[in-house]
Amino acid sequence: MFTKKISSWAILLLIILGAFGGIGSLVGGNRETEQEYADVKSFAEYIAKLYMTVDSNIVQRKDQLQLIAPSMAELLTKSKDTQQWVQEVKAGKVEQYDSSRYSVSVETWTVALKKVKEEKKEGEVEKTAKDNQDAPTYIQRRYTIDLDIISNSLKGYVVSGLPKIREIPLEKIEVPKNENVLDEQLILPIIEATFPSIFAGGDISNVSNYFTDDATINPFPGGYKFQKVLSTQIFKSGKKDYRVLVFVEVLDPITDVTVGLKVTTDMVENNEKYYLKNVY
């Protein structure tokens, strides 16, 4: 009887251990699959970027594709008057349809630069050789690129055949114009008086009379030199509080070129005067 009980417990223990082992194998297998799919996505994104780029470095791109996507490499040709840059690539869901074959679609965003010849209008004076240069036109484009990928544990990945490419028509996105809720001229003197010191990155006590008592003003230590205010966007964030986005032109002292950037500020009105509360 005692022997039978021991045998029963031993069998139960083996079943439990086996179950845990099976679960462990299942979890381990899922992790391996997830990693494999992540690798396939990265490879597909790399291929899409190489294939959809149009520039003067065609020889280098063709050499790279020859190793991992030979059929695609054969069709690459040099463009005389067009360039295209890939802005973003994002691979979607990976489908495994064979032990070593995968299908994946890559969403691809590009910007193309095409030189368009300007036609002479009736009555227009003949253009000089300099004026007659092709006018550049930038075009934003979006594609889905479907790739079939073969996995080889020893050699990595290779693209099978050619991709399926579909261009998705895009409408030009218009940035809505913001109507300021406050007359810009009421706050420009404060900005123009304080920003040179704030951008200098040092002591700003000389302009502290433009700040609220609890102001948080962090000087910018980057080295840019404030040049001028380009524009502002003003939003009412409280009864007497305003969020002001200030777009400025600054000078990079190292490269000696001007740069445009945004500074976020919070301003407070007190007795018809305006003060900086936050600058970041």
What structural class do you assign from the helix and strand content? alpha+beta
Mean of residue pLDDT values: 85
- Ranges where pLDDT stays below 50 over 5 or more residues in a row are none
Largest sheet, in brief, is:
5 strands, antiparallel
Q: SSE order in H/E notation?
A: HHHEEEEEHEEEEE
Percent helix range = 25-40%
Proportion of residues in extended strands: 35-45%
Measured distance between first and last alpha carbons: 80 Å
Number of helices: 4
SS elements, strand count = 10
Silhouette:
extended
- As a whole number of angstroms, the C-alpha radius of gyration is 31 Å
CATH class of the largest domain: Alpha Beta
State the CATH architecture of the largest domain: Roll
Number of domains: 2
What CATH calls the topology of the largest domain is Nuclear Transport Factor 2, Chain: A
